[in-house]
Amino acid sequence: MKLLRVRASNYKNCCDDFTIDLVAKSKRTSEDKEYELQEIAKDLYVFNTVAFVGKNASGKTSAIELLECSYSILSEFRLEDKHYNYDNVKLEIIFYHEDYIYKYNTGLKSDPALGNKANFTRQHLYRKKYYKSKMKEIYSVEGFEEILDLGELPEDTSIIFFILKKKATRAVYFNCDGEGTDTWRLLFRAMKTYKISENVLTKVIKVFDDKIQNLKMVDDKHYKLVYQNYVKELSDSELIHLLSSGTTKGVLLYIFVVAALENGFDLLIDEVENHFHKTLVENMISLFKDKTVNRKSATLIFTTHYCEVLDLFNRQDNIWIAKSDSKIRLDNMYGSYNIRPELLKSRQFYNNAFDTAVNYEDLMALKKELMR
Amino acid sequence: MKYLLMCEGPNELEVIRMLLEHNKLIFTADDLLNLTPYHARQIGNNAAVKTALNLYQGNVHVLRIGDKLSDELKVPREYKGKIADIKKYCTKPELEMLLIISENKELDFEKRKSTTSPKEFSKENVIYNRSRYDNSTAFYREYYGKQINLLVDAIKRYKQLKGKHQRDEFYLADLLK
């Protein structure tokens, strides 16, 4: 299963028909096919890496959360514990699965019972066989046939269940908040779930802090740490205080990088620069682009303020610029701007080619206030 | 010091990958920048290569693999201090010369080389496991993957047959153990 496109209306403060399309649009060179794209079916290419950029409060997080919402439905067939209002949201999710293109339409409604769950209303599921010759018309209504008589499910369970059948991790989302003292418990649980060896953990930890020689979980709340040749037994909160918060967050995220690459699910990260050093961001991008490591078509999707990271993208159609006037909208760098590919993308950001610069007058107004 | 191996096309990359897998080269994957060979014509427009160069702090020797490599490799300003030298390893006029040699059809090709390119000749004359050569990476893997010595022999014989490269054009054979 691979998500191709999601479109939402009445979702958060976004414009109607708010759309994120993960299928490659611009010319695909042989180098792009090697590093930037994955061929999920003959001539159907999706991105290895996707970025959302924009200034503060422009809607980057809303965009990545829409993808997270789609993946929740595709993974668990449910939506719960989101912090936005589900009522009246209309979703269209288009995905590829076993030779077919599926189009799923649904409305969302808050479940009246306790708990923060969404119910699915007015659900329709269509499919058509994928043909390479019709690659350009994959989204056109032509050829889609509705799948009827799927059966009954509780209203908080999506009918996508009838197609994908088994719950599975199809993406993991990292927001900026971190998991606090729960981080290490979560990390060891992830290692068990995704069968990641202790050897990998040791190597990941060394990248972040080479003074740590070994770390093992004793029980849910206690850990054994070998640190500069000393063995210490620590509680979870002691461990968090001993290791820097950057190390803690970074190790957890890198363990999920390993899990995503080995299992072929997608990784969504809000504000990638919040988690670690630029080299580690670059290394992560490099791992997703290397098919000898990324053997199961995992995609890295992130938001960033860090426009230099975009110079490491060869293409423009996998970069979206989030903008917020009265409503949030997304502009695709390839579809909406005419930027010569040889120009550095970061330089274009500083030149304000995408209208993303922080307002100079506002900065000076603040400075004047401080000069009084 | 690391080698940045830049293959001009996906087929050159596949040939290098097979040689690396079978440990036939004078270096191993450990000696390569980011542990991997690259498919890249230029550095400036290949983000994967730029990312790899950003990860490594030492000197890098660039080895370019391609048929003619007549275009000059332009090193972006930010990497000028990092790149120690650049060498070209050619299989001119085209990589398909290796297939023609492996098929022992170099004499047939000689007769037609004024009108037919090695690629066209191979598409007409090279058939393996009932598949005709189609310029695909998969064909190279199929053809040489399980008979790596055939590839090594072709590379060596290419050097014997094509001893007229320019002084700055090395042979793939020069990279063999």
Describe this structure in words.
The complex is a heterodimer of chains A (about 375) and B (about 180). Chain A has 2 domains: about 260 residues, Rossmann fold (3-Layer(aba) Sandwich), CATH 3.40.50; about 90 residues, no CATH class. Chain A has about 375 residues and is of the alpha+beta class. Chain A contains 11 helices and 17 strands. The longest helix of chain A has 19 residues. Chain A has a 6-stranded antiparallel β-sheet with strand order 2-1-6-7-8-9, covered by helices on one side. In chain A, strands 10-14-15-5-16-17 form a 6-stranded mixed β-sheet, sandwiched between helices. In chain A, helix 4 runs parallel beside helix 7. In chain A, helix 8 links the parallel strand 14 and strand 15. Chain B is an alpha/beta fold and about 180 residues long. In chain B, about 35% of the residues lie in helices and about 15% in strands. In chain B, helix 1 packs parallel to helix 6.
